[in-house]
């Protein structure tokens, strides 16, 4: 029996999950029509029945209500196995599902939310991951619209049973809104944007204690939306009226800055297929052999100009969600910093490149050695150092951007940011990622102006660093700092005189 579930090319092998579901349906199809058998199925029969019913729901829309009633009557595990199979279908088959099956998938997911099925949070997250950033095709916008509608319709049920999944939805729709507002207006997108705004604003106004759980990247996403009136009001309250959020836990935006975002949120904006390809590249491909893999990835996922914004999500994923073990770090496998360097070069639009650099440095700004992971900040410093001297423009650009962030990201809380950046440098030296700060302040290839800024950072802030961090700075002696500072000042003065 040919599959009614997925679209396959002639040269493609059938997917094992699709085959399994179809064969289960074919085996017991006669038992899926009323009157249903009253016997209690054995464990193997129960598995086959769940698989057959799932195939029937997805492939026989006209009988879906019959199938779901049959399922309700036979369930003995809280829908755990059924929901797990649904999640596998989403992760492994969603892009290839026929349109009617995708419609049925959303319908049965809504049914599973209604009965508080075990594993529904994982299913919803899997569906959110299938919405592709920067993709304005009809199918992608349809999925986005269906899911934001589902979260609004099932608000009370989810709030009671799986409140944390609402934070995953918030992260997703905040990120997607930034893309949707860049596209020229059309009626379908306008309706979707209003639904996304409605959901996000409801989260902020009614469930801010849940929003808070996202951590500092909530601020990063919000800053992309301050031009939207509804979010401008949220931003003002975050800064000046914390009492508006009706939670005693929130007093100042610095609390969000100092709260690390869990890696699970970064996976939300990377489809399972993207994740598989990126992890393969960063685990099995040697440095020097990566170009054809990068070219394939670019053609597959970044070929349209609107897709460039995906680079921001990928950089955040590589920094915060893919932490290779020591055996990979010490091998010939292409390092994370090299892949990020390639991604930054692939950005054609200035705002995308700026957002990608912010994604690279974001944890630096608020780094706390007690909470943050050195692996999150490692790619940026290694890209800076390994670009010397062959790609010194990259080193200069990144250091300039870091200092720009320190000066302007939040002028009122500059002390927090300066301390975070210095703490990041100290941790990088302590963990051996940098052998010494001398590699930067004593490098002839780096411009005198930037060396002076580094010297000022490393010397002028010694008094503000905790005692635990002081020993790290000894690797960059005060005499060396003063000498480097004098050299930089003399060079800058000479250049000014020449001009």
TrEMBL record:
It comes from Rhododendron griersonianum. InterPro entries: INTS3, INTS3_N. This is Integrator complex subunit 3 N-terminal domain-containing protein. GO terms for cellular component: cytoplasm. Residues 45-454 form the Integrator complex subunit 3 N-terminal domain.
């Amino acid at each position: 029996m040919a599959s009614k579930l997925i679209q396959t090319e002639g040269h493609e092998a059938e997917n094992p999950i699709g085959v399994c579901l179809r064969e289960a349906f074919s085996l017991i199809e006669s038992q899926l029509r009323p009157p249903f058998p009253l016997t209690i199925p054995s464990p193997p029969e129960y598995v086959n029945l769940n698989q057959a019913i799932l195939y029937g729901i997805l492939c026989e829309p006209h009988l879906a209500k019959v199938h779901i009633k049959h399922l309700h009557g036979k369930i003995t595990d809280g829908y755990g196995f059924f929901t797990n199979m649904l999640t596998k279908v989403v992760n492994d088959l969603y892009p290839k599902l026929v349109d009617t099956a995708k419609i049925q998938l959303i319908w049965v997911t809504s049914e599973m939310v209604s009965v508080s099925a075990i594993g529904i949070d994982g299913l919803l997250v899997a569906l959110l991951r299938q919405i592709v950033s920067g993709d304005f095709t009809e199918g992608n916008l349809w999925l986005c619209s269906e899911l934001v509608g589902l979260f609004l319709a099932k608000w009370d049920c989810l709030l009671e049973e799986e409140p944390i999944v609402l934070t995953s939805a918030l992260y997703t729709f905040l990120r997607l809104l930034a893309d949707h507002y860049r596209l020229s207006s059309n009626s379908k997108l306008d309706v979707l944007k209003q639904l996304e705004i409605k959901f996000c604003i409801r989260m902020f106004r009614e469930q801010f204690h849940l929003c808070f759980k996202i951590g500092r990247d909530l601020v990063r996403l919000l800053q992309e939306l301050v031009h939207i009136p509804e979010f401008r009001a949220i931003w003002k309250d975050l800064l000046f009226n914390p009492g508006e959020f009706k939670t005693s836990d929130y007093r100042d935006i610095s609390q969000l800055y100092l709260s690390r975002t869990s890696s699970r949120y970064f996976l939300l904006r990377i489809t399972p297929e993207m994740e598989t390809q990126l992890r393969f590249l960063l685990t099995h491909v040697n440095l020097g052999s990566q170009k054809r893999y990068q070219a394939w990835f670019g053609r597959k996922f970044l070929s349209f100009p609107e897709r460039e914004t995906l680079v921001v999500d990928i950089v955040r994923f590589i920094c915060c969600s893919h932490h290779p073990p020591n055996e990979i770090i010490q091998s010939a496998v292409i390092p994370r910093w090299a892949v990020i360097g390639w991604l930054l070069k692939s950005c054609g639009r200035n705002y995308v490149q700026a957002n990608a650099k912010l994604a690279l440095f974001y944890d630096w700004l608020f780094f706390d050695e007690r909470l943050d992971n050195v692996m999150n900040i490692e790619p940026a410093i290694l890209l800076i150092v390994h670009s010397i001297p062959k790609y010194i423009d990259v080193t200069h650009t990144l250091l300039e951007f870091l200092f720009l962030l320190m000066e302007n990201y939040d002028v009122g809380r500059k002390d927090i940011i300066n301390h975070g950046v210095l703490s990041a440098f100290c941790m990088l030296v302590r963990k051996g990622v940098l052998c010494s700060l001398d590699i930067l302040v004593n490098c002839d290839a780096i411009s005198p102006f930037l060396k002076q800024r580094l010297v000022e950072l490393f010397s002028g802030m010694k008094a503000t660093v905790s005692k635990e961090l002081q020993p790290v700075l000894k690797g960059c002696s005060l005499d060396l700092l003063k000498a480097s500072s004098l050299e930089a000042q003399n060079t800058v003065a000479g250049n000014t005189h020449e001009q």
